[in-house]
Amino acid sequence: MFGVFSLGVVGQLIENGEIISAVNEMNISGNGKDFWNKLVEVGNDPYPYSSRRIPTIMFEDINFSGI
To answer: How many domains would you assign to the chain?
Structure first.
């Protein structure tokens, strides 16, 4: 059901509970099952300016690539 994927992302890098920097024009890739098993928290703040209404989601131990 889950396989290898690559997805463009934007957001914020958080370390030790502190916002460190913005994340923009980055890619995240990996195995879908491994990726969703690293989901730590889901916010109650869906983005109001999109038809997809995606909330803030936080993952641990995810690798990013890009600029």
So the answer is: 1
